[in-house]
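Lab notebook, entry 444. We have the chain sequence and a SMILES string for flavin-adenine dinucleotide, and the next step in the workflow is to get a structural model of the bound complex before anyone spends time on docking refinements. Request logged below.

Task: model protein plus flavin-adenine dinucleotide, output structure tokens.
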Amino acid sequence: MTVGAPHRVVVIGGGFGGLFALRVLRRAPVEVTVIDRTNHHLFQPLLYQVATGILSAGEIAPPIRDVVRHQPRTTVVLGAVTAIDLTARTVTAHQGDSAHTLPYDSLIVAAGSETSYFGHDHLSRWAPGMKSIDDALELRGRIFGAFEMAEAESDERRRGEWLTFAVVGGGPTGVEMAGQIVELSQRSLQRNFRNFDPRSTRVVLFDGGTSILPTFGPRLAAKTRRDLERLGIEVHLDTLVTDIDDRGVDVRFGDGSTRRFAARTKIWAAGVKASALGRTLAEQSGADLDRNGRVQVLPDCSLPDHPEVFVVGDLMVLDDLPGVAEVAMQSGAHAARVIVRRQAKGGEGPGQPLRYHDLGSMATIARFKGVAKIGRIEIAGFVGWVAWLVVHLTFLTGFKNRVSALGHWTVSFLGRSRSERTITEQQIVARLAIEAQGDAGRTL
Ligand SMILES: Cc1cc2nc3c(=O)[nH]c(=O)nc-3n(C[C@H](O)[C@H](O)[C@H](O)COP(=O)(O)OP(=O)(O)OC[C@H]3O[C@@H](n4cnc5c(N)ncnc54)[C@H](O)[C@@H]3O)c2cc1C
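Result returned:
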């Protein structure tokens, strides 16, 4: 750093970790650059509501520029970080054909994770993941498109394929998706079709483990399973998905037997792996990676031998902390506080260890039905759903988005309709078309 020049902090990622770091740096005497490959901060826990027509994309994904508009010392760069040089202390980001290299004095890497198909990436062709606005809009196109195809189909068996939805993964995202597709078919789509009854929709949920929502404990897990089955969802645990194609899903049950489920719409909610930037950091610093590619950090979230580099959120491994939003928020804010404190002390000194406060986890099963685990307290049913509603409203970014989401929830949960049912051809085919073009099809 040049003497007298402001301390330069680069933040990679404007997700939960990055955003909470930016909040702490708001008033600090440092120059901040945040780089993200999308123009928005994404509230991922509500992606399933964009996919099922309850919320609009904008309500859960405000532009990062707008979020930091009152932070004059913060610059936003739209670009995909492709290289980090820990020796030269630079970050290189690509935007189209051009590359920008930015120097840093402190670096916070909050690049999160991406969908994992556990080495079987070809499955993504027919089973989109749930990690981005693109994913949610593609799924919206596929889900509402399937009902349109069912209306046009005269053969009962083929119509049944269009009306069967297969969800892979029994964590909160899989449970929420399955529950919402049932709500759609039982309530929102009533009287919309002439050739079939949407209530004949079939939803099948697969998970390789022995429990739904395993992190919520056995009691809430069992209750959730009962609630899902009461809604008519077929739950298959101890079941591995072995293949997926345009017409269905092949599975292997725990007893070794196999079966094919005919289903036109498949949703992959089974797993994530860390951003590839984790490997870049590990190779240069000697930090360990876990099997999901997450970087083992020191107690203050910094990299071994690089006190100026912090890894936070889904990309870090520390004390068995889970990959959830709360960990990302607290670790992002913590890393920023270490930087601010150091600056106040002349730029040197060890960081304090992160002390994580577990505020619990929650998920919705359907309208007015939720589960929440806060420490030893377990809540289910309507109270669990209200807890979910309050927490999600509180954490949604931006006052305008909170008001607008509340309006849409009132329409969907008290009434029957969904405001965001528009689908386009591009939603369904754009991802595959871009992939087919390779790098030439990408803007970032
Ligand atoms: C569908 C879904 C539902 C979830 N539900 C819950 C829930 O109910 N409760 C809960 O606590 N957690 C939930 N989570 C997990 C939670 O969203 C994550 O733990 C959290 O988002 C992690 O924050 P992060 O900042 O580490 O990463 P992210 O929020 O993923 O942010 C990473 C950011 O980095 C950017 N980025 C990545 N790579 C690059 C690059 N090379 N160059 C530039 N930018 C890059 C991305 O565009 C993104 O903006 C859910 C996740 C998903 C996907």
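Notes for the group: The domain at 121-270+360-432 is CATH 3.50.50.100 (FAD/NAD(P)-binding domain). Worth checking against the assay data. The chain has a mean pLDDT of 94.
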